Amino acid sequence: MSAVREVETDVALLGEADAATRAGLPGDQRGAPVSLVERAVSVGTWGLGLSYMVPAMLGFTAAYSTLGSHRIDAATRWYIRTQLRLLFVKWRAEVHADVDPGQQYIFCQ
What we know:
This protein is mainly α and 109 residues long.
């Protein structure tokens, strides 16, 4: 039986700022000047994202409220699957052998 030992780490505790926001650590860019190009890229990215996200979410909200979730689930799955493919997202799930690949599940962690 192994004894539990305490190890000192830099993990932020509840109420503390996380490592990405602590001054002086790698990646901390607070106070760094922002160029005009960076601002333009930011505005363009937000504009592009909102230009499809707002109409899509309004459409899905209207469809869910009028048609119900069971009738719109196939379209929702297609939308999410297409979004993930466009972003080149790949993932793999390792599950118990009793999990049926033809069945839909919701896994919570």
